[in-house]
Automatic annotation (TrEMBL):
InterPro entries: dCache_1 (IPR033479), HATPase_C_sf (IPR036890), HATPase_dom (IPR003594), His_kinase_dom (IPR005467), HisK_dim/P_dom (IPR003661), HisK_dim/P_sf (IPR036097), HssS/ArlS-like (IPR050398), Sig_transdc_His_kin-like_C (IPR004358). It is found in: Cell membrane. The chain crosses the membrane at residues 7-27, 278-300. This is histidine kinase. It holds the Pfam family dCache_1. CDD domains: HisKA (cd00082), PDC2_MCP_like (cd12912). SMART domains: HATPase_c, HisKA. Its EC number is 2.7.13.3. It catalyses: ATP + protein L-histidine = ADP + protein N-phospho-L-histidine. It is an enzyme of class 2 (transferase).
């Protein structure tokens, strides 16, 4: 086999084996990342659903407390309002409460014997609830009590009841006020939180019975007998547990409400769908890359083998010349000794010339690889510098965030300790301490919203909810928002508005977030009583959104980094985490648009982007 063919075959084998290993590694790592992303997304959905359900339970408890202090309820116990009047009041009240959601089943009053003495349901009147645990807890512990899943004694429907003691003026318990919630309605509160295409939520009460399920016939059944993947063990409230069984992924989270368990059930095939799709892409592109690699191998083998072949030819030529020369010496050495010496001298000169030629050829071919090496070194240095910058920005972000949180917590603890110590007796001082506690808590809340919402949105930025909406109406809303915000911030508003009446396809919530970020930045980085100009105009079937301020501007060295996550030109700036422009850029790119800007230091900045007209 020729040298050139050997080199070509060797390079092809090395390249193909390397590609196979690389593709397998990429697929394995990417599949692991995708599966982790899916399970993390499931955990996020569980936490969001838990918060919503806990909030609903807390809302019902607060409503029950409010009813226990209601004037009509106390008139009923004082005998100044009869049962029929009280029942009519409860019916009218519940109808108003059900206008928005329709999950209230009954409002009722229980006397000291545990008997329902007032209710919105006629067949619930005088039903004895004294044996119910939540009724006993309400009387014994004198606090709000929420039941597990119950079968209503009045009409045999599945409900969850909440009761709170009713106190008289002398502090003696008169009875309990209760609110009954339809159990199947619990699942409706988390319908917005998707778990794949066919995954769903299940709520299990503290006794192990299904409280909520997408199939109403499953409610009131024992979870351990009907859900094969459910394990009725002890769970910590802060942890999410996962378990695979019969082709499903079961994820558990203990809720704050009554030690209920929130469970998600998702087919394992859906978790693997992205990995299988990824495998197809890896195989497809692997084949294409392999073909290109073979072509490149042939090209490279020509380049690599060329100097070697030339060297080999030079060596063979030199050997042949040397053989001819030796034969000539053997024939003439006796008669022409002087010429022999001269020829030997010439042979040495020819050999030096050969060495110099070979050296020049090798140096020329090596220069080809040296240039590539220089380019690679420059790219590596750029990547290294970029990674160092990302690491620095991330650590600075965490430092700023922890400082802001610690400051607010320190203030809350300090003022709370002052109130608890009893040393602060003046009402004005107490009010000031409480106001400071409230302000610090509000700061913590704002930090949570800014950071968690921004990072969450950045992570799932591609999940757009596009709507076909009127360009004129939407643009006018953004224009009016900017005008009000700027004028209320003691800046001078100058506006230019002109929008044609056609439709655009956008995710309204995300575009509004971009606009709010840009308007807020224009106000934040400009002084009071300076001018901010807003332009929203139609240009060639596109809408131009532009904001120009006369603020501090952006340094030249900062311009290439302002869209990076966590980057801030002023690292000492409070209440900023370098996320606004990063998230805005991602949102616009997902809308096939681009966030552009111009800025001059100490003279101001201009940011703008376009939204295209709907094609349909």
């Amino acid at each position: 086999m020729k040298l050139k063919n050997k080199i070509t075959l060797s390079i092809c084998i090395i390249v193909i084996i390397s590609l196979i290993i690389m593709c397998a590694s990429i697929y394995s790592k990417s599949a692991s990342i995708l599966n982790n992303e899916s399970t993390k997304f499931t955990e996020v959905q569980i936490l969001r659903a838990q918060e919503k359900i806990d909030l609903m339970v807390k809302k019902v408890q607060v409503e029950t407390l409010a009813f226990s202090r209601d004037e009509h309820v106390h008139k009923f116990f004082n005998k100044t309002e009869d049962t029929d009047e009280t029942n009519r009041y409860l019916i009218d009240t519940m109808e108003k409460m059900n206008l928005d959601n329709n999950y209230y089943k009954d409002l009722f009053i229980v006397d000291l014997d545990g008997i329902i003495v007032a209710s919105t349901m006629p067949n619930a009147m005088y039903v004895d609830l004294s044996s119910r645990k939540y009724i006993q807890d309400g009387f014994n512990y004198k606090k709000t009590a929420t039941s597990d899943i119950l079968l209503a004694l009045s009409d045999r429907t599945n409900i969850v009841n909440t009761v709170h003691p009713i106190y008289g003026k002398d502090g003696i318990i008169l009875g309990l006020f209760g609110i009954a919630i339809k159990a199947e309605n619990f699942v409706y509160f988390v319908n917005d939180y998707e778990i794949g295409e066919s995954g769903y939520f299940v709520i299990i009460d503290s006794n192990g019975y299904i409280l909520s399920h997408k199939d109403p016939s499953m409610i009131q059944k024992l979870a351990s007998e009907t859900l094969t993947g459910f394990k009725n063990t002890e769970y910590k409230k802060d942890d999410v547990y996962r378990y695979y069984d019969a082709g499903f992924l079961y994820s558990y989270k203990k809720m704050n409400s009554n030690n209920w368990i929130l469970l998600t059930i998702m087919p394992k095939d859906e978790l693997m769908a992205k990995s299988i799709s990824l495998l197809g892409y890896v195989v497809f592109y692997g084949i294409i890359i392999s073909g290109c690699a073979i072509f490149i191998s042939i090209f490279m083998s020509n380049k690599i083998s060329s100097p070697i072949i030339h060297i080999n030819n030079y060596i063979n030529s030199a050997k042949n010349s040397n053989d001819i020369f030796e034969n000539a010496i053997d024939k003439t050495i006796v008669n022409v000794k002087g010429i022999s010496n001269l020829d030997t001298y010439d042979n040495y000169n020819n050999f030096d010339s050969f060495i110099n030629t070979v050296k020049g050829k090798v140096d020329k071919d090596l220069n080809f690889f040296e240039k590539d090496a220089e380019v690679l070194i420059k790219k590596s240095e750029f990547l290294k510098n970029s990674l160092e910058m990302k690491t620095y920005l991330t650590s600075k972000f965490l430092s700023t965030l922890s400082h802001d949180i610690r400051t607010s917590l320190t203030l809350i603890k300090g003022y709370s300790k002052g109130l608890l110590s009893g040393l602060v007796v003046e009402e004005d001082a107490k009010t000031r301490f409480l106001q400071e506690i409230y302000n610090s808590a509000e700061t913590l809340e704002q930090i949570s919203y800014d950071v968690l919402d921004s990072t969450y949105e950045a992570q799932y930025i591609q999940q757009l909810k596009l709507e076909k909406i009127s360009a004129n109406d939407f643009s006018k809303y953004l224009y009016d928002f900017a005008k009000d915000y700027i004028e209320n911030s003691d800046r001078i508003f100058i506006g230019e508005y002109s929008c044609d009446d056609y439709f655009i396809d956008v995710d309204k919530v995300k575009i509004i977030r971009v606009w709010q970020n840009l308007v807020n930045n224009a106000v934040k980085y400009s002084d009071k009583y300076t001018t901010i100009k807003i332009s929203i105009i139609s240009e060639n079937n596109k809408i131009l959104f532009k904001i120009k301020d006369n603020g501090v501007g952006i340094k030249e060295n900062d311009k290439e980094y302002i869209f990076d996550m966590f980057y801030k030109s002023n690292l000492s700036e409070p209440n900023s985490y370098g996320l606004g422009l990063y998230v805005s850029k991602l949102i616009l790119e997902s809308h096939e648009s681009t966030l552009q800007f111009e800025s001059t230091l100490n003279k101001g900045s201009t940011f703008w982007f376009y939204i295209s007209k709907s094609m349909v």
